Here is the input.
Amino acid sequence: MQLLKALMIRRFLVGVAGVLVATGPAQAVTLLATGLVWNNSTSAGDNNPQCFAANVGATPVRVNSMKIITFDGAVMPAQFLNCNFPGDISPGLACIFVGEGRNSFALVRCVIEVATPTGAKSIRGTLMFYDPQGDTQILEAH
Here is the structure.
């Protein structure tokens, strides 16, 4: 009886190990995110929130996504986006995501999903916002 249990457990463990080997290791992504800023823009234009991702490294960096997210988790639509994601950002270049912030009074933040932890070391993320009073707010992504 003990031998039968041991064989069943062994068969189960071999099956689990086979599944794990077949699926491969999980790829770790790194999220870079800013803090929240109050978006009180009332018209389209320069006062919409702008999310930047610049590659300051020497090799291309794979970025899975770049978004402006409201405090409740909704993704703000893009008014302008100069990169396609997932995609690579070449050394010395930057991508910009300008949110369609018109009449969306909400706290927002910039979130950049980098494909690898080593690539994230080369990305500098920033959320910039010009408020209607003429002040500029800049938050760095960490």
Q: What stands out?
A: Residues 12-24 have pLDDT under 50 and may be disordered. The chain has one domain: 27-140. The helical segments are 2-23, 117-120. DSSP finds two helices and ten strands in the chain.
